[in-house]
User: Fold Sesquiterpene synthase from Dipteronia sinensis.
Amino acid sequence: MSDDNDFDLYTTALLFRVLRQHGHKMCCSTFTKFKNGYGKFNEILISDPKGMLSLYEATHLRHHGEDILEEAFIFSKAHLKSFADKSSPHFLAKQIINALEIPLHKGMPRLEALKYISFYQEDYESRNETLLLFAKLDFNRVQLLHQQELGHLSRWDISALDDLPDYMKIIYSTLLNIFDHEIYNYLSAEERTYKFSYTKDMMKEMVKAYFAEAEWLYRNYVPPFDEYLRYALISIGSLSYTAAKFLGMEKEIAGIDAFEWLQNRPKVLTAAYLIARLKNDLICHKSEFKRAHVACGVECFMKEYCLSMKETAEKFDIIFENAWECKKPTAIPMEILLRVANIGRLMEVTYKDMDGYTNPQHLQHHIT
Assistant:
C-alpha cells in the first residue's frame, strides 16, 4: 500500500490492520499523510468518528519502535472517549464503547464477529443485506459445530495404577490414554517420530515446573519476579498445550520446523502466555489469599519492588501492552501464529473483570 494513495483515514487504517493481521509487512509511514506541518495528527480528523475508530483499531497491531502508531493510539483513544457519549448513529457509539473495552486485535475472533454483526445490522443506510445474511449463516454454522464438539467430549476409562495415590490415578491414566492410544494411533509413522516425542518432552517440562511451585508452597517461598516467570510460563502450559495443538495439524503446516521453533521458546509464545499468566494472577490474587496457594506474580512483583496493589496493576498493564506489541511477522505459517495469539485473546475475554476460568458460568453466553 503506497503512501501516496487517495484513501481516506477509515480505508487506510482498515487496509493496514487487515493486511498486517494476516502477516503482510506493512509500513506505518502510510499514516504520515494524516499529519500537519507541525508533525501532529490533523485536528480535522476529529470530525470523522468512523475513521478515528478504524485508526484506533489499527494501532493495536503496532510493533516496538513504531512511534507514529503510538502517537496515533494516544490521539485516537483520547477522542474516542468523547465520541462514545455523543456519536450518531447510535450503533457507532456502541461500537466505539466495545472497542475501548476490548479492541478487535485482542478479542476472540468469533465473539467479535458476533458483536460486529449486531452493529452492522443497525446500519440501515449502508448495510448490505446479502452480506449480513451470509455473516449470520456463517456464525450460526460454526457455533453449531462447536456445540456439537463440546457434546461429544467424554471421559476416558481409567485403569488401576497401584503405584499412584488415588487422586492422581485419573489424571495420569487419562494422559497416558490420550498420548499412547488416541493421539499415537491418529498420527502417521513419520509424524510419530517427532510430534509425539516433542509433545511428551514438553509435558515433562510442565510437570517439573509443577514440582518447583509445589516446593515454593511447602517452603512458603515468594520468589523474585523473574524466577517466578521462569517456572510460571512453563506450568501454565506454554510449551505443552501449544505442542498439543500442533498434533492434529497437517504436517505441511505443523512439521518438525514448527516443533523446533516452539522448543526454542520464541518471543511471540512467551508474550502470549505472559498475558495469560499475569491476567490470571491479577484477577485471582484476592481469592487465593483465602486458601493455601503458591505465590502468584502479583505477590512476587509487589514484594520485590515494594509496590501497592494499584501500582502493580498499572505496571502489569504496561507489560500487557508491550507483550501485544511483540507479535511481529515471522517465517512460521500464519496458522501456527494464530493459535499462539489466540491464547492472549482468550485470556483477555476470560479474565475481563472476573475469573471466567474458575467461574465458567460467566462465559456461558459466549457459547450458547
